[in-house]
Design goal:
The complex is a heterohexamer of chains A (about 160), B (about 120), C (about 290), D (about 350), E (about 140) and F (about 650).
Chain D (H helix, E strand, L loop, with lengths): L4 E5 L11 E7 L2 E8 L7 H7 L5 H6 L6 H16 L5 H29 L3 H22 L8 E2 L2 E2 L5 H27 L1 H7 L7 H6 L4 H5 L30 H24 L15 E10 L2 E10 L4 E7 L1 H12 L7 H8 L4 H5 L1
Chain E lengths: L6 E2 L3 E4 L5 H10 L3 E9 L3 E10 L2 E10 L3 E3 L9 H11 L2 E3 L24 H4 L9
Parallel strand pairs in E: 2-5, 6-7
Antiparallel strand pairs in E: 3-4, 4-5
Chain F lengths: L1 H21 L3 H25 L2 E3 L9 H22 L3 H21 L9 E3 L1 H31 L7 H20 L3 H19 L5 H31 L8 H5 L6 H14 L6 H6 L5 H10 L1 H16 L3 H21 L5 H22 L2 H32 L10 H4 L1 H15 L4 H13 L3 H26 L15 H19 L1 H17 L7 E2 L4 E2 L4 E2 L1 H19 L41 H4 L1 H24 L1
Antiparallel strand pairs in F: 1-2, 3-4, 4-5
Helix pairs in contact in F: 1-2, 1-6, 2-5, 3-4, 3-7, 4-8, 5-6, 5-12, 5-16, 5-21, 5-22, 6-7, 7-8, 8-10, 10-13, 10-25, 12-16, 13-15, 13-16, 14-15, 14-20, 14-25, 15-16, 15-20, 16-18, 16-19, 16-21, 16-22, 18-20, 18-21, 19-20
Classes of the chains: A alpha/beta (about 160), B alpha+beta (about 120), C mainly alpha (about 290), D alpha+beta (about 350), E alpha/beta (about 140), F mainly alpha (about 650).
The structure holds NI-FE oxidized active center (NFV) and iron/sulfur cluster (SF4) (3 copies).
One iron/sulfur cluster sits at the interface of chains A and D.
């Protein structure tokens, strides 16, 4: 593993976005930051700002109003970046299948790299999901591909 | 501020509350609701589980005697478990693991020689 | 000072100090975590953060702000070098202020409203700590008879017993500069849980943000060495004093809520500044004929 | 060119755990107006409640909100039980109290942590959440899941608390009480915390009533109103007096929640002590016909479910009115006049739950 | 179409015709009853709207029947806090509320992606229900 | 040739002014201004290269120059009386009357004693002043040509008042030179009063009610100064023998028994420099067209006040008076810097900052050590250049955007990149190392290090200073929501040239700070404080004092490297992005209007912070005035004791 890959593995800055979830998974994400789970051990920091983040943790089935927000946040993140859909409803819409305002999962709006199961996803599972995602992140190219558009212009 | 000072100093000189995860995962609670699996040995493919499932995670294809299960739709509520009169739905305390791609698990009645394992079918 | 010595000192200031600074930043985070009952990140965490940021693709920070941040970084380097070279403390503080101004102007140039709001607060922070630092320099002058940092090293006795207030105001300065509660009003240290998000850094991304991280590696040694001036003989005691101030600010961070800028201004100008002045007046009053 | 500052606060903002946008107008960092933009978490659960089987709805309403989830289920079940003319067995009622109060403890500790985080008191946030993990473990141990515990069902409860678990709860709660006591004392007596909370966002009692505020928000203004006084489930048989604080500011509201943590601990212990033997649930046949309204006390205040059945397995209407919904007008009224820095603090002081609000 | 009869949990339902609705609400306000919320049912050609109040932990209600297409006078003049629920009525039932204190003009909870107000009964069939497994 | 320099400096602009009144065409006027400017610059440089000299003009054919001065004085005082009368200002009228009576008494009683032999003495301080006046004054006068055209387009005055305007400006320049060079209090008094008159008339240039009211305030306050000046002359004339009474070099060459007149002169200086409690007139004077503010109210005329105080410094050495002067200056420095924070009007910020800096200069003069006086002189020079630049830029901005409000200048960098760049440069030269003003401030701080009160006040004042400057450039660089960059900035060529050269001068002077120190400042200090090496030593790289050193060269080099580095680092690839607005994307077409409540686009805006809660003028006006009055009273009191 080269240095950059190692650094990416060890410094995941997180942006958490609640895309219409029930809060169940959100508070579990928050729990991950707190002493018992403490993901800062892995260098993870909840930066709360897409421009600083490497990892987007999304919860919730995505609804018609926050869809645009989710897309915008994703676009504002610099490459390389990964998206982790936390919880059943972020993965597939879950229990909100009959809800008229739901899009039925994050992957309907932006590409998802890791799906974390659970309703609510348990902190341990979230950590595993994060680590799984980081393995993917580390392998992403360090230089933007020739001709590839920068973050904004894509999508 | 003084009281808080006591707390933080106490913390500084005692073992951190952090659990050693993932190095040494804690055992799951005995009654935890975790992994939903099917054992089709006695399954009649009656569809009761699918009917009760609030998320539509289960699809029973009667004709093909198959159960299609989408674990990433499942909210681990246990309704299917309660609905099945044949004990074909199981729920274990272990957590399901995160994945890169959402699988669809296909369960069929085990033939005598093949074990009853799910076949992952990725969409 | 001979040329080789200057070279050695410059080397220490420009290359060694930031490594120490990096470890200190990491240590800071780790100690904070321990105070909160957590394990916390490894001490080398800032290094990985930096590498990762540098390897981010593209940079959405505006050119102007990046330039400003580079100037901010440069001012930290230069001021640290000035201390190591025993230069004039007042000028050194002006250079520090230069960096602060660059940082602020950069923050204003960003389009995000949080950047603007945070930068306004950053400005008020400058208003709060700037006089404290200059008073400290004056205090040192009053005992050494010179503003040159080099002359502090010639003293036989430590300055702290006669400048006790300044050790306290330094903790205040540390809290402000290191963005710690109760003074993390413009931007919090690492976590963005702030009404103004990351303040002046809200729009700073990738490699440009790396400049800021790097600047912090210089900032900590700089702050430590300012504290060390208060106990310059022997120098290791001064370093310990600096570390003690750092530790104090970490502890304060963990036993206080973030307060508001108006509280900070009032505290700065109604408590810290008068206290500094009182200490100065004591020094003036007891000034020996010798200096 | 307009004078003054106008910034969006949310939908994605680091201090907001949930997406909501407050449009804040400021003059020199003083709020002159705050207008909410909601709908970022609106899913359409009321409609889904008409489209689902009424029994499946239990799982749905639990997921209106993960923080007060079990209480949604309880309220829904109470309403449906009223329509069906059922009464849950005694043991189930007591178990419901145990779980509801455990849930309340977790919700209040969560609030106290988030509030601390809102004014940058990170260590306190960490401490409260560390202590909260004890409750989470209890929940997981007894109900099998941490936040969405899925214990209520129409006619009773789905799980039991056996002697072994009861003992574990009895052991754990006093420890939790001691730790929480220490933290709550630190919080409420801390100079910096008082600076940030005392006199911030004051809602006088009359205003609170007029704007329909409920729960700790109302009790923080000195009005002793708590749906648990109505005695649903087993509350009627347990000793209960609502906690109030008089000042109506952020500090009072926080103090109410902090004290309610201890009250809830007492309630859990009392319910366990008096836990009667018996069935966990009653069976039923038939489909709901007729209407019922159930009001229960969720962590944030009074939660109301109205269920209208039409004799089919689908409901005619499921109406949810959650406490945050009732508290938002009061919040909007007191935000103007605050400093910008107080916006997150005062906003959090009603412990807003947007996913509840928007369903 | 029928209206609600006895509702378990509601102590009293008082009927108020649309014209005197606000007077009825005002009477509650004078009695210092706490406004809880309004609740609406689609009854085919009209809406059945209940205004719920709290009187010492008892629930009481005022009911009005609103023909579809008619405008509902806003209660925000009496109870300011009704603006939330009235905006919701506009969004979800397509009821036009007159004199609304803060008007989100139908975009309070939803963005305009629906052909029909989602909470109307008839809308049910227009929503596609993903009961089927997509596989 | 040598002997012609001073007449050129003093009289040629005056003549030019008179001609401008007569030849009313625009071309002729421009030519006159240009010619006078050329003459002034040439003569000033020649004077500087010539060095020290003394000069007394011979009689003009048969008339003694003193008669001319007398006649001019009479006209002037009459003018003041008439002005106060027509403006219905009893206060000003009584002051003018008092002066007229005093002057008559002086002439009648002591007429003989007013004659001196040494009319003009050129020392380094005077040279510095003349260079300032001539070079900056010329630049500003040239800048005023396009400015006034545009100005009249906005304020159509029928008929054009430009002839009068330029006449006043040119006359003023001559008077300023005279004031700087004259070694004769009696003559100085005349020049002093001419500057007052020009100032008063120029403030009223636009003729609006506000302009006239401001002009009146300037009139009466400056007349107070005039009275003090005259009283000093009277006392000296009374006490001293013929031939020596009016000679400035004798009066202030060293410790003097005539402390009260010196205190009175300081008081006059205070009024001219708008020190507390006389700050009001300078603030009001901002209604004048901006070239006037640049010329009179920042870089030259107000400097006359501090110039006088610096001149008086040797006479006050080791007296209580000097301490009070220092205190009064420091007090003004802090108080006005503080109030400047709450100002939303750019010109008022500049005005307050000017007053504040003048206070600092006076404080340094009051500290009266070699170091302090060096600091004072340096500050005098550097401040004038930077402040002139800032005023010129502010004028250019004002004419373009039609406002002086800082809030309206938000994001100006997109609309007027060049002017903004110059403004920012101006501020930076005021604020940051290694630029001259900061070097001077450093010098001031080090020289005050032993004086607790001055020290504390200097530090506090400096802290405030940073705030309002940074806030201003912050607003300029703040990108205004929704505004598209218009890169089409047209500027009249003369704007570009004058502002450009003043900016160049500011930077150049800063780079040459050690040279400036050696060439001008050190000789000044050496010549009249007679202390030699006690001040600063300038080596090639450093400016050193006994207690510290300023690595000018080192810092300049570092800055150069840093800027180069910054440019390199900033030139990397940029990905376009929308600003972070808490996740809501901006609506189509409007960059900073995210969707708000009801999905309606709601523009985002952030206004500057002015901390009015803490620093509003009204909150502090009372104690500032009281403090100013007390300190000026103390000044006279201490001198009398
Ligand atoms: N307590 C509570 Fe809820 C409910 N019901 C409400 O606002 O949290 Ni999510
Ligand atoms: S997955 Fe379950 S717990 Fe998580 S947000 Fe969705 S509904 Fe809530
Ligand atoms: S698992 Fe059970 S409920 Fe489901 S189809 Fe088989 S037998 Fe029926
Ligand atoms: S556990 Fe619940 S969600 Fe999962 S398959 Fe069974 S019924 Fe469906």
């Amino acid at each position: 593993m080269n240095l950059i890959q190692k650094a990416r593995m060890k410094s995941p800055w997180i942006l958490h976005f609640n895309a219409g979830s029930c809060n169940g998974c959100d508070i579990e994400i928050l729990s991950c930051l707190t002493p018992v789970y403490d993901i800062e051990r892995f260098g993870a920091v909840n930066v709360g700002n897409p421009k600083h983040a490497d990892v987007l943790l999304v919860t919730g089935p995505v609804n018609r109003r926050n869809e645009r927000v989710l897309r915008n946040l994703y676009d504002q993140m610099l490459d390389p970046k990964i998206v982790v859909a936390v919880g059943t409803c972020a993965s597939s819409g879950g229990v909100f299948q009959n809800c008229y305002n739901c899009m039925g999962g994050v992957d309907k709006v932006i590409p998802v790299d890791v799906y974390v199961p659970g309703c609510a996803a348990k902190p341990e599972t979230i950590i595993e999901g994060l680590i799984l995602g980081l393995e993917k992140l580390a392998k992403m190219p360090s230089k933007p591909k020739k001709g590839a558009q920068p973050a904004e212009a894509r999508t | 501020m003084a009281r808080m000072l006591r707390s933080v100093l106490h913390n500084a000189f005692s073992k951190p509350a952090t659990r050693p995860f993932p190095e040494a995962p804690r055992a799951a609670f005995e009654k935890a609701r975790g992994l939903v699996t099917f054992d089709c040995t006695d399954c009649r493919f009656c569809g009761a589980c699918a009917l009760k499932c609030p998320t539509g995670a289960i699809r029973v294809v009667r004709e093909e005697r198959k159960i299609l299960f989408e674990p990433f739709k499942c909210i681990v509520c246990g309704a299917c478990l309660e609905a099945c009169r044949f004990g074909s739905v199981q729920m274990g305390p272990e957590r399901r693991k995160p994945v890169y791609e959402k699988p669809v698990e296909v369960y069929t009645k085990p033939e005598a020689d093949k074990p009853a394992t799910p076949q992952d079918r990725n969409e | 000072m001979s040329t080789p010595e200057i070279a050695i000192r410059l080397f220490a200031a420009v290359l060694l100090a930031p490594i120490a600074g990096m470890l200190l930043v990491g240590l800071d985070r780790r100690i904070s975590a321990r105070l909160q009952g957590r394990v916390g990140p490894p001490v080398t965490q800032p290094f990985y953060d930096l590498v990762k940021l540098l390897a981010k693709q593209g940079d959405t920070t505006s050119r102007f702000q990046t330039a400003c941040l580079a100037l901010y970084l440069a001012s930290n380097v230069v001021s640290l070098a000035m201390v190591f070279l025993g230069q004039d403390l007042l000028v050194m503080l002006f250079v520090v202020a230069f960096g602060a101004v660059a940082y602020i102007v950069g923050g204003f140039s960003a389009k995000s409203p949080y950047s603007q709001l945070g930068t306004q607060r950053e400005m008020l922070q400058l208003l709060t700590y700037e006089p404290l630092l200059i008073f400290l320099a004056v205090g040192i002058y009053l005992r050494t008879g010179s503003f040159l940092a080099a002359d502090v090293l010639r003293l036989e006795r430590p300055l702290l017993p006669e400048l006790p207030v300044f050790a306290l105001t330094l903790v205040v300065v540390y809290c402000i500069k290191l963005r710690k509660s109760p003074f993390d009003i413009a931007a919090s240290a690492h976590h963005g849980h702030q009404e103004v998000v990351r303040g002046p850094l809200s729009e700073v991304a990738g490699p440009s943000l790396a400049l800021v991280e790097l600047a912090h590696w210089y900032e900590l040694p700089l702050l430590l060495s300012i504290a060390a001036l208060l106990w310059a003989t022997p120098l290791w005691a001064g370093v310990l004093l600096g570390l003690a101030c750092l530790l104090a600010s970490i502890v304060v961070d963990n036993v206080a809520a973030r307060l508001t800028w108006s509280w900070m201004l009032r505290f700065g100008w109604a408590v810290a500044v008068p206290a500094s002045i009182a200490n100065l007046l004591y020094l003036y009053a007891t000034r020996g004929g010798g200096s | 060119m307009s004078e003054g500052t106008s910034v969006p606060f949310g939908p994605q903002h680091p201090v907001l755990p949930e997406p909501i946008q407050l449009r804040i107008s400021l003059e020199d960092e003083n709020v002159v107006q705050a207008l909410p933009a909601l709908g970022y978490v609106h899913r359409g659960i009321e409609k889904a409640g008409e489209l689902n089987d009424f029994q499946q709805n239990v799982f749905l309403v639990e997921r209106v909100c993960g923080i007060c989830s079990s209480i949604h289920a309880l309220a829904y079940c109470l309403a449906v039980e009223a329509v069906l003319g059922l009464e849950a067995p005694k043991r189930a009622s007591y178990l419901r109290v145990v779980w509801m109060e455990l849930h309340r403890i977790h919700s209040h500790l969560l609030y106290l942590g988030l509030l601390a985080e809102a004014f940058g008191f990170e260590s306190l946030f960490m401490e409260f959440w560390r202590v909260r993990e004890r409750v989470m473990d209890l929940l997981e141990m007894t109900a099998g899941n941490r936040v969405i515990i899925s214990v209520c069902t129409i006619g009773g409860v789905r799980r039991d608390i056996d002697a072994e678990q009861a003992r574990a709860i009895r052991e754990e709660l006093p420890k939790l009480r001691d730790e929480a006591r220490r933290l709550v004392d630190s919080l409420l007596s801390d100079y910096t915390v008082r600076q940030r909370t005392v006199g911030k966002g004051t809602i006088p009692a009359a205003l609170a009533l007029e704007l329909g505020a409920v729960g700790p928000t109302l009790r923080g203004s000195g009005v002793a109103q708590d749906m648990r006084m109505a005695g649903y489930a087993a509350y009627g048989e347990l000793e209960f007096r609502p906690v109030t604080f008089p000042d109506g500011d952020t500090y009072s509201r926080t103090a109410v929640r902090a004290e309610e943590v201890f009250q809830s601990i007492d309630l859990v212990l009392a319910a366990l002590d008096n836990l009667p033997e018996g069935d966990l649930k009653v069976g039923f046949k038939g489909r709901p016909e007729g209407a019922a309204l159930a009001r229960v006390e969720a962590p944030r205040g009074e939660l109301i479910y109205m269920v209208v059945g039409n004799g089919t397995k689908n409901l005619e209407r499921m109406r949810v009115r959650v406490p945050t919904y009732a508290n938002i007008p009061a919040l909007l009224t007191v935000l103007p006049g605050c400093e910008f820095a107080d916006v997150p603090v005062v906003t959090l002081s009603i412990d807003p739950c947007i996913s509840c609000t928007e369903r | 179409m029928s209206v609600l009869g006895e509702v378990s949990g509601i102590a009293r339902i008082e009927d108020a015709p649309l014209e005197s609705l606000l007077d009825a609400l005002r009477a509650y306000r004078q009695r210092q009853a706490r406004f809880i919320t309004a609740s609406c049912l689609d009854r085919g050609d009209r809406f059945e709207i209940l205004y719920l109040f709290d009187e010492d932990l008892r629930t009481v209600a005022v009911r009005t029947l609103l023909p579809k297409g008619a405008k509902l006078p806003s209660a925000t003049g009496v109870y300011l806090c009704a603006f939330l629920v009235e905006n919701e009525l506009q969004d979800l039932f397509g009821i036009e509320v007159e004199g609304l204190h803060i008007d989100y003009s139908g975009k309070f909870l939803v963005t305009d992606t629906f052909d029909a107000p989602p909470l109307l009964k008839q809308t049910a069939c227009e929503l596609q229900l993903p009961k089927e497994n997509p596989s | 040739m040598r002997d012609l320099l001073i007449p050129i400096l003093v009289l040629s602009p005056m003549a030019g002014g008179a001609l401008a009144l007569i030849l009313r065409g625009r071309a002729a006027r421009s030519a006159l201004v240009a010619l006078s400017a050329a003459a002034l610059v040439f003569a000033a440089v020649a004077l500087a290269s010539n060095g020290l000299m003394r000069y007394t003009p011979g009689p003009l054919t048969t008339i003694d120059w003193n008669r001319v001065v007398l006649a001019a004085d009479v006209v002037l005082l009459g003018w003041f009386l008439a002005l106060a009368w027509t403006r219905r200002h009893p206060g000003a009228f009584s002051l003018a009357l008092l002066q007229a009576v005093g002057f008559a008494f002086l002439e009648i009683r002591y007429g003989e004693r007013l004659r001196v032999t040494q009319g003009f003495v050129v020392d380094w301080l005077a040279i510095a002043m003349v260079l300032l006046v001539s070079i900056l004054g010329s630049a500003i006068a040239l800048y005023a040509i396009p400015y006034m055209d545009e100005h009249e387009r906005h304020h159509p005055g029928v008929p054009s008042r430009q002839p009068r305007f330029f006449a006043l400006i040119l006359v003023f320049l001559g008077a300023m030179n005279g004031l700087a060079l004259s070694n004769n209090l009696y003559w100085t008094y005349l020049f002093w009063e001419i500057t007052t008159l020009c100032c008063v008339l120029l403030i009223a240039h636009d003729g609006t009610a506000e302009a006239v009211a401001s002009s009146n305030r300037a009139l009466w306050m400056n007349l107070v100064g005039g009275c003090a000046f005259l009283a000093a002359i009277l006392m000296l004339a009374h006490a001293q023998p013929i031939g020596e009474a009016m000679a400035i070099d004798r009066l202030v060459g060293g410790p003097t028994p005539y402390l009260v007149p010196v205190a009175l002169l300081c008081l006059a200086g205070f009024t001219k420099s708008a020190q507390l409690p006389f700050q009001g007139w300078l603030l009001g004077a901002m209604v004048a067209p901006t070239p006037v503010s640049a010329l009179l109210h920042s870089s030259t005329m107000v400097k006359a006040g501090v110039y006088l105080v610096i001149r008086c410094a040797p006479a006050m050495q080791d007296t209580g008076l000097t301490n009070v002067v220092a205190l009064a200056g420091a007090f003004t420095f802090v108080a006005t810097a503080m109030v400047a924070i709450s100002q939303r009007n750019a010109k008022r910020v500049l005005a307050y900052s000017t007053i504040s800096n003048l206070g600092l200069i006076i404080a340094c003069a009051g500290l009266n050590t070699a170091m302090a006086v060096s600091a004072a002189v340096m500050l005098l020079l550097f401040h004038a250049v930077s402040k002139a630049l800032l005023f010129l830029a502010a004028g250019a901005i004002e004419q373009r955007i039609g406002s002086r409000e800082i809030e309206r200048m938000e994001g100006l960098v997109l609309r007027m990149p060049w002017t903004t760049a110059l403004t920012v440069l101006g501020v930076l030269t005021m604020l940051l190392p290694p630029f001259g003003v900061l070097v001077s401030k450093w010098a001031a701080l080090e020289s005050a290090a032993r004086e607790p009160a001055a020290m504390v006040l200097f530090v506090l004042g400096s802290a405030f200073t940073v705030l309002f400057w940074v806030r201003w450039i912050g607003r300029l660089m703040a990108v205004e929501p929704g505004r598209e960059p218009e890169m089409t900035e047209q500027m009249p060529a003369l704007f570009r040239w004058t502002m450009g050269s003043v900016a160049a001068l500011a930077v150049l002077l800063s780079l040459l700070v050690t040279q400036v120190m050696q060439r001008f400042v050190a000789p000044v200090v050496a010549s009249y404080l007679q202390v030699g090496s006690e001040g600063f030593r300038a080596t090639v790289a450093d400016l050193e004092s006994r207690i510290g050193s300023f690595p000018v060269l080192g810092l300049a080099l570092s800055l150069l490297i840093a800027v180069a580095l910054a440019v390199i680092l900033a030139s990397g690839r940029r990905a376009p992005t929308v600003p972070y607005l808490c996740g809501e994307p901006p609506a189509e077409g409007a960059e900073l209007a995210p969707l708000g409540p009801g999905d309606r686009p709601a523009p985002v805006r952030v206004s500057g912070t002015y901390l009015e809660r803490f620093f509003a003028e009204e909150r502090h006006a009372a104690w500032m005035t009281v403090g100013g009055v007390l300190l000026t009273a103390a000044m006279l009191g201490v001198a009398a004791l």
